[in-house]
Design brief:
The protein is α/β, with parallel strands linked by helices. It has 26 helices and 26 strands. Helix 8 (220-233) packs parallel to helix 14 and helix 19 (481-490) packs antiparallel against helix 20. Bound molecules: ligand MGD (2 copies), iron/sulfur cluster and molybdenum atom (MO).
Length: 757
Amino acid sequence: MTTHQTACILCSRNCGIQVEAHDGHLTKIRGDTQNPVSQGYICQKPTRLDYYQNNADRLTHPLRRRPDGTFERVTWDEALEDIGKRLLAIREKHGGKAFALCGGGGQANHLGGAFGLSLMLAMRSVYCYTSLAQELTGEFWVNGKLFGRQSCHIEADVERADFVLMIGKNPWQSHGIHNARDTLKDIQKSSTRKMAVIDPRRTETAKIADYHLQVRPGTDAFLLSAMLAILVRDNLVDREFLEKHTLGYDALEKVLREVPISEYVARAGVALEDVERVTQEFAAAERACVRTDLGILHSLHSTLNSYLAWMLFILTGNMGKPGGNNFHSAFLPVIDHSGDGLFNVKTTATGTPAIARHYPPNVLPEEIDNNRPDRVRAVFVQSMNPLLSSADTQAFERAFRKLELLVVVDVAMTETARLAHYVLPAASQFEKWEASGFNMDFPRNGFHLRAPIFPPLGKSLTEAEIYTRLLEKMGEVPRFPLLERVAKLDRQAPSRGLFPLALVSTLAVRPWLARYLVVIVYSTLGRALPEGAAETSFVWLLSHVYAVRYRQAVKRAGLTGTAMALGEAVFQKILGARSGAVLSEHLYEDTWSFVHHKDRKVHVEVSEMLSALQALRSEPTEPEILRTFPFVLMAGERRSYNANTTLRDPAWRKVDPEGCLSIHPDDAEALGLADGDRAICRSARGELTVTVKRSANIPRGVLSLPHGYGIQYAGSEPMGPNVNVLTSSDHRDPIAATPYHKYVPVRLEKCSATMSK
Ligand SMILES: Nc1nc2c(c(=O)[nH]1)N[C@H]1C(S)=C(S)[C@@H](COP(=O)(O)OP(=O)(O)OC[C@H]3O[C@@H](n4cnc5c(=O)[nH]c(N)nc54)[C@H](O)[C@@H]3O)O[C@H]1N2
Ligand SMILES: Nc1nc2c(c(=O)[nH]1)N[C@H]1C(S)=C(S)[C@@H](COP(=O)(O)OP(=O)(O)OC[C@H]3O[C@@H](n4cnc5c(=O)[nH]c(N)nc54)[C@H](O)[C@@H]3O)O[C@H]1N2
Ligand code: SF4
Ligand SMILES: [Mo]
């Protein structure tokens, strides 16, 4: 039995955990008090992590699908040689547009992403479809307009705020803020700090908040614009701040002055005096912040919602100070910027641009399933399960079956993997060096490089090794005998030796190889590092970039050295800190240095958003479709025992094994439904049999189902409802193409006695 420090991989917080490893199993899982960020905090889920590490779906060998749909084991050489050949043939015949990468990382595994991207570049493709582009790209688009780059990412300083406005976010269950339940309880206990929640459900978070604005689903744009209009009407905007830090406010103010406040508030289904009170207290607070999430991102007006929510903290001057909204550094950036022009290649069938370099899964089935010569023909799926997690399972299945080549790189035999020509086994996140790019704290930010606890299962390999071998087989990345030799000599502290110089000279002679930088460093320095530590070579590279980019903040965190030495200090600190390391300490006023516009100002006048704001006026009160599908289903609630599709064995759930449909008791009664009854839920797209559970926390006319169910564990029938049978990929935001999962019109009907058997 050995004790290890690692992290929980089930949500973006990546809380530090201490585990005991015994006979290949993770036992005794506790919060790691040494973790500088989570400091021992965990929720109820990580004690179930052995279900990830050990389960019947774990992959042990590369698999090739036979014509009859079964799989046969093949060697890595056989698999990679054939895949490489087929990829090259597709590239030769159809060019880069024929290839797409899907995924790259989940909630805690982002080291492998860069290697998948290298394959994408080798295919001369730019198409990277990810789950981020089914939730956050509308927000990233807004950030691009306001701050100059879509990678300017905003966080909320909830811990230090006097007033927290939580919009469409239920951190009690979904976390996403520092030590969520402790932070929420602190606010609840405090007599001076306040929280208001905007959510149609009376969530766990809403119950402990000071105010709950129980908004009607899909009407946040009306509510938020009314709140902004109240700020203007009551002269609560921070004019000094706007003058100093923003441009274009007058144009926004003009539109806000026209907002019919009481009409919009009534439309949102909340009381005007409550909205006024929340708005006024928010504006009056010394330190206030706004935290949003899927409740507005996955609902009608998604991108506009993000814009309006951001205007709340901007108009009240809550940026660049404790308890407000601020930017943060990024050690392993998971987003970048996609401009409007030449460098943003639109997809061929739907003409969809990338945002923050991510393409939306919503359009992928259409990009594959058409007869255009430039359609997508080959897809690599890495650490994503679009068959369950993306909208419209039926469309995905149909499209994926048409691919000339589908390869899935995963730790488990997923629903998506079952359709693949090749399934490649990745070492699990407890079997390799791994890390998350979701380190988004400010002013202090850190990074946690987790060391492997177990050897890779069976023949599984790290993503770094899989893609490097594939690129070598494809003849894209040659061997570098000289670099390899230098790397061996410098392996103790690569920055101090000749390795950096040798690397730069290699790339100077063959500049076209720069796109494979991560792979080259891996194949030379990485393979020279001690047994199994090869992936840390990527971290070495990132350490240098971070040290250059945030030099002052890194020094403030106590790291010393000039030029390469500072980067090496960052790397060594990371390597030495098994529980995670703090790497930078910014000053609050540094927030403005993150703004990318040359004038360092927030450009609040975004013409598309002002038009969308004006267009709200002419929007019909109720969508036509609700006449035939009278319930609004929120398709994807975070509960105590769901975690996307990361844990496949249903035994991991301590409660809610069936993933029940929540329904208001009066609605249930009207339909003759009692707890435990089976009902058929129908959308325009598909139908699903669900188990009903009444809840007074949900308003009438609204239903809620969790996501992350419907898994076919060990080849079984789907367990629980796969909500994406009901969702549709064209029910999406006009700018970001993100799905409106929280607003799925459905009908509900009790199953007849014979059907429920
Ligand atoms: N337990 C658990 N935690 C998780 C995850 C998980 O699978 N399980 N997944 C992680 C991931 S990937 C993400 S992105 C986050 C998401 O975290 P959240 O966004 O907090 O999670 P949700 O429960 O999907 O949605 C939040 C709230 O939106 C509300 N909502 C629905 N419709 C509307 C609306 O029209 N307006 C408003 N204002 N609110 C609305 C819902 O009632 C719900 O309470 O959670 C992370 N944490
Ligand atoms: N209807 C509806 N759909 C939703 C949502 C919703 O609320 N409603 N939520 C959406 C959201 S916000 C998100 S973020 C997505 C999440 O959906 P996905 O991005 O698909 O994430 P997961 O379901 O966690 O699947 C991650 C995959 O990674 C695999 N994996 C785990 N570790 C490793 C590893 O080390 N290497 C490799 N190669 N693979 C690994 C797991 O086995 C799993 O198959 O779901 C979305 N889908
Ligand atoms: S909050 Fe997230 S990362 Fe932390 S223990 Fe819970 S599921 Fe894991
Ligand atoms: Mo997510």
